[in-house]
Amino acid sequence: MNAAPEPARAEIDAIEGAVVVEFGASYCGHCRAAQPLIAAALANHPQVRHIRIEDGPGRRLGRSFRVKLWPTLVFLRQGRELARLVRPGDAEAIAQALAQIDGAP
Question: Coil, strand or helix: which one is 14?
């Protein structure tokens, strides 16, 4: 996870096309374990934008998405949430969620 300033919710909502917003923390074991699964699923969807957000206390963006556990993947198309995975355990679940946002408008 990077420690860059988090974008505003309005910025995320305004992104055109398909995007996966990943909430987690660099010290989170579940987040680290999910990285190869996320990378494998995203490899088949190069046009999907992937935004990693370092979440934690006082971080508003995660609260605006009602994130409670890490990692949480929010799948958006045209700013609208179409799928969500919390602590995904396999690349297939991620691939299925990606299929919902990648392609048809």
Answer: coil
Please, what are the averages of pLDDT over each run of 10 residues along the chain (105 residues)? 75 96 96 97 95 93 96 97 96 95 68
Q: What domains, with CATH codes, occur in the chain?
A: 9-101 (3.40.30.10)
Query: Going by C-beta distance under 8 Å and a sequence separation of 6 or more, which residues neighbour residue 7?
Result: 51, 61
Strands (E), 5-102: 18-24, 49-54, 72-77, 80-86
Contact residues for 98 (Cβ-Cβ < 8 A; gap 6+) = 18, 20, 41, 42, 44, 45, 48, 75
26, two tokens: 């660099």
Q: The whole model's pTM is what?
A: 0.92
DSSP 23: E
Signed CA dihedral, 88, 92, 94, 96: sign only: negative
